[in-house]
């Protein structure tokens, strides 16, 4: 990679972090442009500038009442929709480029104001996507309203008693041919739509998923556009009961709501009828006239939200490690060497490196992975939209779904764990709200159970891998893996015959060794999972039972390692485009990511006889420590390359100027009422309490 | 154990949980009295009754501004101090019994209102303990004020730039013989005392730890009682700058503060002079006249707070698993068998069992462990107070410290992980504030870094074990382990020669097998850690470096497994007092705890050649799943036995009546403003937004 123009990236302020920055063996700005596309980064910077200059986005040092947070977030959303970061010229770009831009704007918003991003994603982006892909020309004017900022929607799918099992949703939409309307009903509270973001207070439209009935027959879940509130008064229409769900434990600015319908009528045309329609006479008609679009729609609806979550996870992960690494370089405690009177920065301690650096490596790998995968994904959607035969794309759609189903759990869980470890690695100061780990946690926590509960969603990935294994092993076919994520399964005989022969730590510290291990591990676990399921079936269990009883230690591990491996593979591909000292450091990051993950799966290597002697476990562990130590002098510069600006990270512990204690002091004192007597002091005075300052009370 | 009177325990309301309750093979009330001492349980119930009847303890469905939470918590503390749960008769009980009662009251308070408990623990209990153990008769009147509720204190130890490394604290207290006063100074902001609970808004006294200087010599950290606020006006005295630290990410009711001193004078007598004093002339004098008391003081100060944290962790863990297990028994999703039209309670899924039941087993084991250990601990403190020779007790004090140093990290981290897993196991509904996981998390999170950061504190346990290993292996002495937690090290030759010979899953499902494995694992890891340190020293590293570089994978694992093993051992001892069907179930819990923990350490067994074939890993994994499945029909009754009443757990998802959806509905509707239009609706109306309900806007 030739060196590129990095002048648009501001220099970092000098300060105590320079001690480590000077030790870096590479140019952090060059590395930043490995992690981020320059043009997309400029778009992000433009949005951040807007936010920083807009008083409504001023951050409060004091936690606001939840009701106020909902109000402010709604107002922030209004302003954000008016920014027009996307110029008219950009809006005319082809699908892939335009969507990538929209995703970039969302990424930049989400890492700064996650609540606003979620409100926008649910109420505008997802709405537009769904109208575009599931709606038809008859919904154009409402799509226009979404584009021009006059309509805000919500996505009403989950019900009180059903989330993952969407087939069991019980809200009904029954066609009445006499009036040519659908009549929507909620049978009982358990069928109330709930957790619907934007619904509690603000939106006027709902994208409702309900069981479509016509001529007394049920045709399953379909999507309807449902006006729910009068846009002038914001009062719900008669027949609709809307409630706000109240307090949550994060994302406080989002007004999650529940909704119940009682004989609520909407016009026939409100059915999104791209894939199926009901005629005025009440006849149900599937339409398969545009297979490519249906397929693209399916893919888009399945994956777009999850791809967004993955992007956001990678950014949140970056924020967390940035704060913790900078703090670790500045915080000193104890002496490494007792004869030295200077205390040692905690980043020098092996244990501290081991707690943080694998997450730094995951941040780097995930950032590259999700960026490259997003490009791949958007290309596929773009191509499939133009497809005339479904068959051409079913295979790649399945594989994309498998990748997403493993990566979304992997990335959100890794981010969850990293945020906690980073908060602890900053000690008590990490518990300050101004450290920002609490807010990040509040935004990350729900991602592990929404848009497909991680444990449930992950089963889609293992099921796909098991199907490929069946092809390879039992039908003697090639795996159906157009993206190549499991073509290696063909070579299962050679792979399963591999054993560990290393004797020194260098033997485990290479990308090719990691690659070899992952191939073996995935092949071994897919084989054993398959065999376990077959053996359960042979004892009389049904397929569902067999699947359920092979999740723990098997299918769910398969999903995990497949996700780890995909991220690793994408990262290695991009790595090949770099050179010089930056390449060396990026390679070290990839190696640390690989060995630290493999070490956690160590027992499987013994179980499957890949390893037969103590060396494998010993060398992997030693390898992780070596890889950590090898990154130590570069890690501050690595987070400089990964991190968004201070304004975005917004942590008193993780500022680029490195003035940790000055910043802490300022934050303490800026806190309103920091130094004042509480207004309620008289309520807590204890009558007759002795004043030990007075001579007669002298101790 | 003969059956005991269980009539004082209320029956549980009938409801949907009965389906599982009826399958239980034991009497849950009998089991409750295995987990809790009947008399102590009655004391708890009495406090809970008081709290439930006191309007100040009414819980708000709406999050209050932090300032209000601090106010309410301060008022709650006032009321709590007036309850007098401890009768005058109880107050005259001997040390052990009285302290056990005080601890029980704290446990009951902490699990219900953690913020009040922390304020009380810091401001009253710890203050009284420290005055009693480090003070002398000249501090009696201030001790009286703490007892009669007219003084509230705080503990000022941590500084902005120093936490774990207490020796580096920089606040000074310099004796001025001219006035017979100490002059306290804070050299700069980095030396400001911080994170001091009660300091931000409310307390009038501080227990200050500062470097004592007299005659221009520093004698190290000493404790002083320092009046900081006028008890009548609650204004800080001149010379003292007090600030509130502002927003945190949990424990919002606690007013953590920072404090800086400028030439602030306190009388000479304010030094707590049990162990050392400064004469009026300025001479520093150590006093070793009462060695037992000094020892007891050391022990008390080191461990009492941590023992309290462990008790609280075990209760928080119980609350978390209770909510998640009850929810799992009620929530249905998908069908286990496709031909069955009834959905399956998620507790029936193997993956869900595996996610929750090991934490249920940990809750049971920890509850018993900490209860039994507390008794042991209090007996030792009681006996050591009366001791005349330090030597008699140094060994046991060291061992107690090692146990606490491993158990506090183990229990707090396990609780942290359990709360998160339980929140996720309740899906989206777990993200409701009313589910209570958020509040539990907010109370649990700081415990992993306060009262000794887990990673730092844990090193005390491994260091102690390494010293014992050195005795055994290199000095041919017995380990110095009066409590018997590592006497088995004597038999290291036999232990290290053990290998796994099991062939069927029953081979790993016994308490004795688990015991055998832990002995091997601890011995192997202590040996390897020791050898690693020696080898680092032999390459020229100093002892400190050698220790630092043997933490990851070695010393820190040693601490972890030693903690696990101690809990297991205490549990097994208590188990021996039970019989019948209850014994069987409790044994299954102990086995699940053991195998699920051992499975996580699997690679070490291969590394150390205890296991040489795939069976060990396979059977351990299979064992965990069998142990989970074996508990499934009893687990609802087990949590009934462990759980405090609904009022205490306070979760909409975990009520004893099992009316999950009715309770959710009620909570949604009780939420103020649930159904009303927001007061700020006009601010978010979009001018010109089309009304798609009107005919002209028809889609």
TrEMBL record, chains A, B:
The active site is at residue 451. GO terms for cellular component: peroxisome. The keyword Transport does not apply. InterPro entries: ACOX_C_alpha1, Acyl-CoA_Oxase/DH_mid-dom, Acyl-CoA_Oxase/DH_mid-dom_sf, Acyl-CoA_oxidase, Acyl-CoA_oxidase_C, AcylCo_DH-like_C, AcylCoA_DH/oxidase_NM_dom_sf. FAD binds at residues 158, 197. Residues 302-466 form the Acyl-CoA oxidase C-alpha1 domain. GO terms for biological process: fatty acid beta-oxidation using acyl-CoA oxidase; lipid homeostasis. Residues 154-263 form the Acyl-CoA oxidase/dehydrogenase middle domain. Signal peptide: none annotated. Pfam families: ACOX, ACOX_C_alpha1, Acyl-CoA_dh_M. One of its GO terms (molecular function) is fatty acid binding. Its cofactor is FAD. It is found in: Peroxisome. Belongs to the acyl-CoA oxidase family. This is Acyl-coenzyme A oxidase. It comes from Zophobas morio. The lineage of its organism: Eukaryota, Metazoa, Ecdysozoa, Arthropoda, Hexapoda.
